[in-house]
UniProtKB/TrEMBL annotation, chains A, B:
It is an enzyme of class 2 (transferase). It comes from the Bacteria. It comes from Pseudalkalibacillus berkeleyi. This is CDP-diacylglycerol--serine O-phosphatidyltransferase. One of its GO terms (molecular function) is CDP-diacylglycerol-serine O-phosphatidyltransferase activity. The lineage of its organism: Bacteria, Bacillati, Bacillota, Bacilli, Bacillales. It is found in: Endomembrane system. Belongs to the CDP-alcohol phosphatidyltransferase class-I family. The chain crosses the membrane at residues 21-40, 101-120, 132-151, 157-176. PROSITE patterns: CDP_ALCOHOL_P_TRANSF (PS00379). It catalyses: a CDP-1,2-diacyl-sn-glycerol + L-serine = a 1,2-diacyl-sn-glycero-3-phospho-L-serine + CMP + H(+). It is a multi-pass membrane protein.
Amino acid sequence: MYFLERVDHTVKRMKSQAANVLTLLNLTLGAIAIVCILNGQLELSFWFIFLCALFDRFDGMIARKLQIESEFGKQLDSLCDLISFGVAPAFLIYEAVLFEFGLPGIVFILIYIICGAIRLARFNITEFEGHFTGLPITLAGCFVALSYLTVDLLPHYLFMFLVLILSFFMLSNVSIQKR
Amino acid sequence: MYFLERVDHTVKRMKSQAANVLTLLNLTLGAIAIVCILNGQLELSFWFIFLCALFDRFDGMIARKLQIESEFGKQLDSLCDLISFGVAPAFLIYEAVLFEFGLPGIVFILIYIICGAIRLARFNITEFEGHFTGLPITLAGCFVALSYLTVDLLPHYLFMFLVLILSFFMLSNVSIQKR
């Protein structure tokens, strides 16, 4: 009887932490993406950011399905998003293209990371009502990471514009329906 | 008269944003520290993290002095801290020493970044009562960055222990008085 109670307790605890474990997995993949950039493995870094995007879909979904949404989970999610969809894609595109432009290249990724942080801080203090105000950093990060695939196809100055436009949309008041 | 009113209004707005501007400056310096690591300029990266620590002292102090503490400022501060005192020092010590250990070196900095994120998320959802529970990531980040200065003096495996011990203390219940 005691054993069954313990199992039940453990299952409940695991359930309550499932979404947070996925969030931390997301953070881990984002940090590994940065390690890959440091080691010059840009394509591998792209795939890790791609995995982050997949896991990011799951953690929120699981939290809502199991009804285990928490303030702690929301905070953790934003912190992880800044790394996986802010820092990692910014440095991926910097190492792939923007480093060629010297200081302006650095300034553009700094603007992207700053706008991402402001977007996340703003999101954390507002009640969610079914739609996002401003482009979510998760989407912006996916666009930046996907743009890496077009590095050999497009003129390189276009990537500066892309980063700037995404930064602007993160801070804009554009309303985006959550799916 | 109108002119004086405008000046007064602008001064008030600048005052209310002063702490947030310092926080964003902190984030900028942290992101530049990562750029330096990418470019192999580890010593320069150390100095940028050192500047982050200086600015981090100021923004909270200014917010309290001008009585402009806000929930948005608190959120922004945590997001910036994760980059300037989590990601930046972790990758500095990785590139300086821990890369030598291969996969274990990567695992240790991942543990550090994950513990830092959990520490910050926990801090964000608790009311501050004059003391911190768990080592603040700002202090942990300073220790990791300072340890860079001893890379040529100490056996390299000690840096793995340092990172692990700091990670443990960030999640511990040790109480640290705020100064």
